[in-house]
Amino acid sequence: MVGAAEPTGASTTELAKAAGLARPTAHRLLASLADEGLIDRDLATGRWTLGPELYLLGAGAANRYDIIEQARDVVTQLARETGESAFLSARRGDETVCVLSEEGSFPLRSHVLHVGIRFPLGVASAGLAILSHLPEREVDEYLGRVDLTPRWGESHSEQALRRRLESTRATGYAVNPALIVEGSWGIGAAVFDRNARPAWALSLTGVETRFREPRHRELGTLLLEKAHVLSGQLKA
Questions:
Q1: Which residue in 1, 99, 122, 211 is a FRET match for 39, CA 20 to 30 A apart?
Q2: Cβ neighbours of residue 143 under 8 Å, at least 6 residues apart?
Q3: Domain annotation for the chain: domains and CATH numbers
Q4: DSSP-derived 3-state class of residue 213
Q5: Contact status, residue 143 vs residue 135, Cβ threshold 8 Å
Q6: DSSP single-letter state for residue 225
């Protein structure tokens, strides 16, 4: 809540109200956080802001999880070489979130993906690629607790999804044949972290006429090559 009020910060009274706490309780908790350097207080205004230790924690996490700078050239190359829109998505729990995009030169675009958009694993090519490379036990657990059909339709039933997972494992790349938006196709390939876990995915999206066979295999093969390069860079 303090962070949401940056850069001006927030008063003890404002934070207590937002958290549903008594003001003395909120002040005691804020003082404890300040002692650890997680938040800071302006002595002139009495307002609380984020502290220096949060910056250090964020910088440490970025070294492990933020691969945008390493991936930027790869995503740009994909867009330039194919003419399609290229993306990097990151796994966040049971979802993927798009964190990087580059528009291709082809004038028609699908507009399904954009930075910040989230999809459940198994929805869109990036999430399908990541899910296909998880251990079978984790896939079973995920499909056991998540029902995608109410929002995404019968094309995302467990049976249909398992068929697409088998196909993805056979080719190495995932295909979304216009299951989210009519006429909009996507192809994705998983990117692996240092522990050989599928943590990200590269993907291309475009209109259906641009994703027909045999270009479909051409794009999938290129994605696999670029994903292999990026995975190797992350392990170095």
A1: 99
A2: 158, 161, 162
A3: 3-62 (1.10.10.10), 67-235 (3.30.450.40)
A4: coil
A5: no
A6: H
Q: Exposure of 164 by Cβ count < 10 A (0-12 exposed, 13-18 middle, 19+ buried)?
A: buried
Burial 122-149 (b: 16+ CB within 10 A, else e): bbbbbbbbbbbbbeeeebeebbeeeebe
Report pLDDT digits (tens) over 64-123.
556 888 899 999 999 999 999 999 999 999 999 998 998 877 655 656 678 888 999 999
Tokens for 87?
């993306």
Q: Which residue has the tokens 């392990």?
A: 235
| CB-based contact 211:187 (threshold 8 Å) | yes
What is the three-class DSSP state of 149?
helix
- pLDDT 10s digits, 32-62: 888 877 788 887 788 888 877 665 555 445 4
Q: In angstroms, how far is CA 64 from the centroid of its own chain?
A: 14
Cα distances (angstroms) measured from residue 32 to each of 4, 11, 15, 28, 36: 20, 16, 14, 6, 7
Residues in the chain: 236
